[in-house]
Amino acid sequence: MGWFSRKERPTLGKMQETLQLREENFDTKVAKFDQELLQYKSQLSKLKPGSPAYQSVKQRALGVLKKKKMYQAQRDRTSNQAFNLDQTQFAATSVKEAKDTVTIMKATAKDIKKGLKKVDIGELEDLHDDMAELIMDSEEIQEALGRTYDVGDIDEAELDGELEALEDDMLRDDLAEETPSYLKPRETNGGIGIQNETTSTHNERQKIEEDELSQLAT
């Protein structure tokens, strides 16, 4: 009787599971043989070499060792088979993925072609030209807004003359705001007041004022 029934078709995955279980079974038996060999080794260490008891234990140990070697060989072959199946599965997966990739690429290319049919290249070029013109117009507007007004040529000598005249006006205003010392109020016996002016004192004040103006002008 085979591993699989006639109605059940073996698959790669099921075969991998079968080989894995078999390999685990071999490992279990090999480990059991190792335990038996340790026991025989312990018994032989207590017996006299060459004695009948020693020879009997030795023969049993050799039988166990032969079984261990046989199961180890079977385990190695099973491991190699499982490795080959893994490689086969990798190859099958790669082929399937390549096939799926081609199918997806074909479908995508078909969608792209449909989309391109709805796109007017000439319309795109016209739109690009319109955008370029709009950008140029915008730059011209910005340049015009940032342009300074031309006030013509300015005569520097004329500006210097106006500046000197302005300084003279400012100087005269400052002199006019100053109050001469003889006009300041002073205390008298009756309080603070201004002395009565006479013709002589008025002339003296006028002369003093002219002298002060001359000194300030120089």
Task: Write up this protein.
- It is a single chain.
- The protein has 218 residues and is mainly alpha-helical.
- It has two domains: 12-117; 158-185 and 199-217, no CATH class.
- It is 77% helix and 3% strand.
- It contains five helices and two strands.
- The chain has a two-stranded antiparallel sheet with strand order 1-2.
- α1 runs antiparallel to α2 (52-117).
From the spread of the alpha carbons, the general shape counts as: elongated
Percent range of helical residues? over 70%
Calculate the terminal CA-CA distance, rounded to whole Å. 140 Å
- Helix-strand pattern: HHHHEEH
Structural class: mainly alpha
Low-pLDDT parts are 187-197
The total count of helices amounts to: 5
- Beta content comes to under 5%
**What radius of gyration results from the CA coordinates?**
61 Å
Secondary structure blueprint with pairings:
Blueprint: H1 12-46, H2 52-117, H3 121-145, H4 156-177, E1 186-188, E2 191-193, H5 199-217
Antiparallel strand pairs: 1-2
Helix pairs in contact: 1-2
Keywords: Coiled coil
Family: Belongs to the SNF7 family.
InterPro entries: Snf7_fam (IPR005024)
Quick recap of the structure?
The chain is built from 5 helices and 2 strands. With 218 residues, the chain is mainly α.
Keywords:
218 residues, mainly alpha, 2 domains, two-stranded antiparallel ribbon, 2 strands, elongated, SNF7 family protein, Snf7_fam, coiled coil
